[in-house]
Amino acid sequence: MVSEYPQRRYGRWKECGIVCGLLVVGLAVALAVVLVLKNKELEEKFAPPCASGDENIDIREQDSPSVFSDLTTAELRAVVDYLYQQSDLNVVKSSDASLNTSYIYFVELNVANKTAVLNHLDNQADAPERRAKVVIFRGDLDVPRIEEYEVGPLPNPTFHTIIYRNGKDSVPFTYRPITLKEFEGIVKYVFVGEIEQKGRRILLESFDASFSDCGIKCLTFYPTPVSTSNYGKLTRNMWFWINHDVKYYALHPLDFKVLVNLDGADPSKFKITKVWYNQQLFNSMDDLVSAYENNKVEKIVMKFPQVDESTFSTLNQRGEPFPSKPLRSPIQVEPDGKRYTIKGQHVEYMGWAFEYRMSTNTGPMLFDVRYRGERIAYEISLQEIVVFYSANNPSHRFADFVDSVALIGSLSKALIPGADCPDHSTFLPSRHVLEASSEPVVYENSLCLFEQATGVPLRRHHSYGKHAGWFYGGMMDDVLILRTVLTVANYDYIFDFIFHQNGAIEVKAISTGYILPSVFSPLEKKYGFQIHDNILGNVHHHMFNFKVDVDILGTSNRFETLDLKVEAAPNQMYSELSSAQTYNQIYFQSNPRHTEKVAGYKFNFDQPKYLLFNNEQFKTKHGVPRSYRVVINGMSKQTLPENSGHENSITWSRYQMAVTKYKDTEKQSSSLYAIWDAVQPVNRFQSFIDDDESIMDQDLVAWITMGVHHIPHTEDLPVTPTPGGQLQFFLLPYNYFTEDPSSGSKNAIYMELKYASDNSAPTVDINRYGYGGEPQCVPQKSKFDQQVAEDPDLVFSTGRTFG
Average pLDDT, stretch 607-629? Predict the structure, then answer.
């Protein structure tokens, strides 16, 4: 018989082992906790959290908003409620609206006239009353039209007054922007109603997908408005090109497109007038279906793509991972907190002060931009974004996009910390009333404001030898940046307004996002490269127009150019060579521009020049006008012939810079309707110049255009990178200050080598002007991921109504 004792003894030892193991684990955990707590104490002792500077930031809506501040929640709601009560307008709420009703398209601030604003800012006069600008679609009228109104005074409106355009009280309904209400009709009556019903077999056999009852194999579409210049009359037509509905649909075009006439306010009367299928053109869906069923058309098969994380059009990580192990990117800290302040929409930083706003229609705007208390510009604002394409196929041939039609200011949403803007940025909201909602909507992170260490010296000099004085002086170019990113369908446009500590302003535009390719065919080769199995990257031209209302030491300004020329200077006294009796060198001539026509600047390499704005009443002690210089690093020639096609709608693009006399009636270079209106432009910029008014000692506005031609290449997949695509212009002080104003910065460093009289070893005096020592602090931890997890609307909503 076997004894049970060894088994019992083994069991007891097993129990002891488990207990000891648990004790060891417990001690290890306790030790780890102690170490963590100890490390945290050491971290807090030697590297405390960086100061937040939150006490400098107040982005709440102000009880008494400035003349430039966007409409508050209460003001937006008051305008909408007032309009609903006006029987003459017959306005219905968004939920009840259709194309043949009267409804609000958008509402935004209508900035008061400049004279009244300056009287308030500079002469302590009462602030002009705040008013709203409202665009209403009047599809309910016998002859549908678009009406614009000024509504006020705010916050309690009592009147609405028609805004006249070229002496007319309305805009043709044909020119209306692309609207959600219109698209509802297009989907119902064109895509599902006609294409699907008549051509479902073609869709399934040719493209392995459909518009309805499609499961995971669905089709979608992209619109190309066709300018009235193509027809010579007021008619509304749009090409729709069809895509496989996968991420991202723009990179999955199909060789199938339809031209739709969209005249009138009754979507049931929208009709297809042309069909493009596999490089062949038909006059109707019936014609295509008949040819297809009778085998009289060359058929095409484009299978629905397999979609996974490695699909070329997605933004998932793929390819060879790097770095080889997880290493975080460099980050910036604000060791003493934020060095800028925000009160409502008023910003101050290192001598700079300005107000910002986000126009629903045109995007970011700055007002009352001052340095050291002196106004440099009354307004700096984006006016228009244009992209003109070229192709053999019709959808891209007529793709001349004038993006304000899309209300580009409402397209900046959900900037992401650590990707779109640094983690330490202040994120700023924008507020809109749009056709999709009867209530105001808010986009929390429409803009971001941050100070940035550029890593580039603002100024420096190193005299490292005895003959040069043995000294060093310099400072970094730390700047304040106000940024927004406008996502207009496939493209993303980054706009920066940058403030340097030497009194310079920089405005930058950068393009990224998805290209808009077409289906590759041999006939398309001269319009782009084949960059993937079925797609061609079409050549296109980006252009950006800005308004810069300069006020150099007041509103009595002049525009002059310093024209660089070459002279053959006498040289007999310096050379005995007969061939060297003259010496060629550069000199400049001041050339004041007296009228608007001679002020239009078109870049010419053979005629280099400086572009200056100054005030004749204010000069340096040496008699030189105190000026600001415009430098444009991003010029691009508009190559279309003048007055041809769509060019008539964007006549500002003829100039790299135009200069006009300020008028309250010339507030914008473009309009909401410019994508359609080439036959009869609602706002033709060239007319600002054609009256050829004097610009000597006047209130002047510079209209600056930048651009770039883009021929896509394989590295534009999946999205276009930003290096090499940065366009920028500057306003630079030019004989404005007695010296570089950054000389007063305490962030500079000065070093000097000193020798003692007793010939002992030299010493180095290092002056950091009170900022000695190396700051050590832990940056504030971002809570963004947690916030998005709790509220996905921060990133993926179309906006939330205010509570």
Answer: 97
